[in-house]
Structure prediction request, 408 residues.
Amino acid sequence: MKATLLLCTILLSIPFSAVADTWIPRTDFAGDARHAAVGFTINGMGYIGTGGAQFEGYSKTFWQYNPDSDVWTQKADYGGVGRQLAAGFSIGSKGYIGTGWIGSYELTNDFWEYDSDLNTWTLKATFPGGKLSQLAAFSIGANGYMGLGSTFSTPKKAFWEYDPATDVWTQIADYGGGPRYFVASFTIGDKGYIAVGEDEFTAYPPDLWAYDPSLNTWTQKADFPGVGRFGAAAFVINELAYVGLGADNNNTYNDFWQYDPVTDNWTQKSDYPGEARYFAVGFSINNRGYFGTGYGDGIEAYLNEFYEYGADSIISTGIASEEFAQSFEVFPNPFSSSATISFSLQRSAQTTISILDLTGRKIKTLIDENLAAGNYHKQLNCESIGAGVYLLSIKTNGETFTKEISIE
Prediction:
C-alpha cells in the first residue's frame, strides 16, 4: 500500500534518544550558583541568566548550554542591571527578559531582547504592567505573554501580550485564578498554562489554568495533585508538561508530576534526584527536560547542579518496535526542495505525524488518521514553516518516534 501527502521540506540531522522516566546528572551550571534566574531554549541550546547569585548578588551574567557536548559557555551579560525574580521567554532565535528585583525593595519594568545569532541585547518597550517581580511568562506562536507578579506585598492578576514584530504590549484577559505570584508556567501547543503559586492570602492554591489566545479566555483545568506550593519549575516534552520542585511555609519539595492536556490528568513520575529546592530553572531541548540551579535548605543553599530528564513517551530514533516501522527514514539527505519519509506499519493504527519545535511544542499536525498495515512513502514539500531546527514526530499505537530535522 502506498500513499502520498504534502508536508514540508526538511533536512534530517542526527537522531537522539532518551531513557524512560529517568534523571541523568549533567555538567553543573558553570556560572555562580544562583536561584530565581530566567531560563529558556533557542535553536537547540539552553540559556540561564540573571538571578540571585551566591557571590554576584543581583546577577546579570548569562550562559548557554549545549546538550550535545554537555558544555556551558558564557555569553554577553544581560543588557539591564543585575536582578533576580525576573520573567522571560523565547520566540524563534530571540530571548526576552524583563522586570524583576534589582535592589533592596527596588523593582523595575524594563524589558530586553537577546539576539542569539549576534550575542547582543537590545532594550525594547517597557513592560506596561508596572514595576514588578515574580511574574509568569510564556510564549505562544509569535507572541510572548507576561503577567501576575507582585510589588513585594501585593500580588497582581493582570496579563499582557507582547508582539516582537511591532514592539507593542497589549493587555489581555486577567488571569482566571486571581492575584498570584511565584507560579510555574509553560506552553503546550497553542495554549499557555499557569500552575500553583502564592495568592494574596499567603496560601498556595494547587490549581491549573489554561489561556487560549484565540478566545482571550482562561479555563480552569485539573488541580495539581501534589502539595500546593510556590517556586515550582516546569518544562514540556512532546506535548506533555512536567512540573515539580518548589516549597511552602514548612517544606521544600523534589516531587515531579506529568500533565496530559488531552486527558486533563496528572501522573506522578520519578522524583528529582538532587536536593529539594525552589526557584529553579526548567526548560526542554530535543524532547529532553532540564532542571537546574535554585535555592535549597542545606548548608550550600545556592545551587548549581543540573539534571536531564528522559520521558517515557520518547523512543530512540531509528529503532523499530513490533507496532511500528521496520524503518523510519527520510531520503535523500541532505536536500533543498523535497524528500520522502518512509515507514511501515505491521498492523492498522491511528497515526499522527507532526512538526514540533525543540521544546516539544507542536508547530503543525501533518496527518492524524487511522492507517492500514503496509508500507508508506509520503512526500515532504512545505513552504509554510520557516527555516530552522525542528522535530519530526510520528505517533502510532501509543508510541512516539522522533527525528531532529532542519528546514533549509
About this structure: The CA atoms of residues 206 and 227 lie 7 Å apart.
